[in-house]
Design goal:
The chain has strands at residues 2-3, 12-16, 22-32, 39-48, 56-62, 68-75, 83-88, 97-107, 114-123. With 124 residues, the protein is mostly beta strands. The two termini are 26 Å apart.
């Protein structure tokens, strides 16, 4: 879902819901990472009042078959503010086509819905 406001612009992607749901809300993008790029940067705004055991805000770098190459983020945080995440790309993903995989998992407990806003994803 597209929502506003965004981090640096008018809009951001929202994964999950302000109303509890049971399952995953995923956003992915396949990208070719040039061998000279060293860093992945994005901003996220977490809303997770539950426990990491049951609710997660996640980001992984995966191969095109779905295998996880690197776990960048796995949190349950309720800061409600934009947080910058900078991740040094391992040599194993540079020069490859990979999938940037964002996910919010909610256990469906109506007392603690989980969602996150994602914005300004860049490779540099």
């Amino acid at each position: 879902m597209i929502t506003s406001p965004g981090h640096a612009g008018s809009f951001a992607a929202r994964l999950g819901s302000a109303t509890a749901f049971s399952g995953n809300s995923t956003l992915s993008q396949t990208v070719a990472i040039p061998s000279n790029l060293r860093r992945l940067v994005f901003f996220y705004n977490p809303h997770c009042t539950g426990s990491i055991t049951f609710d997660q805000i996640q980001m992984q770098i995966r191969d095109t078959a779905g295998a996880t190459l690197a776990t960048v983020l796995n949190v349950c945080s309720n800061s409600g503010t934009w947080t910058r995440k900078s991740f040094k790309l391992p040599a194993s993903v540079r020069g490859r086509t990979v999938v940037l995989w964002f996910n919010v998992h909610d256990d469906g407990n109506p007392a603690n819905p989980t969602y996150a806003l994602i914005d300004d994803v860049s490779l540099n």
